[in-house]
Design goal:
The protein is an alpha/beta fold. The chain contains three helices and eight strands. The chain has one domain (2-111): Hypothetical Protein Aq_1857, Chain: A. 22% of the residues lie in helices and 35% in strands. This is Core domain-containing protein. Residues 19-121 form the Core domain.
């Protein structure tokens, strides 16, 4: 029975899905970072938390856990996880990766953000 329980936990099709999109470029960057770490058990977690000048900040980090209420989507083998409290704030958001002379990093385009601060690190 233990194998069945573990298979059910690992089966992302039983978990709710979210509406966050991950671009092909961002998915490739996540895959590259995971390969550098030598970890195949990690997922990209996207969260919204109180903070910053405008009230809310984004958090992107690798996580091995699936928590109660998490929503999951797979993008070419990269699992993106959003906690149940962040799902309403991130519906329709898209994550991309920029690698230019002026900027390198993940960007989030969120249609739910009413505005952001001057530094662009937080939103409301």
């Amino acid at each position: 029975m233990t194998a069945t329980t573990n298979e059910s936990i690992a089966d992302a099709t039983e978990l709710p899905a979210h509406e966050v999109q991950l671009s092909d470029v961002a998915a490739e960057k996540v895959r590259s970072l995971l390969e550098q770490e030598g970890r195949t058990d990690l997922r990209l977690r996207v969260a919204v938390q109180p903070g910053g000048c405008s009230g809310l900040i984004y958090q992107l980090y690798f996580d091995e856990r699936i928590l109660d209420g998490d929503a999951v989507r797979d993008f070419q083998g990269v699992e993106v996880v959003v906690d149940k409290m962040s799902v309403p704030y991130l519906g329709g958001a898209s994550i991309d990766f920029e690698d230019t002379i002026s900027k390198q990093g993940f960007t989030i385009d969120n249609p739910n953000a009413g505005g952001s601060c001057a530094c662009g690190d937080s939103f409301h």
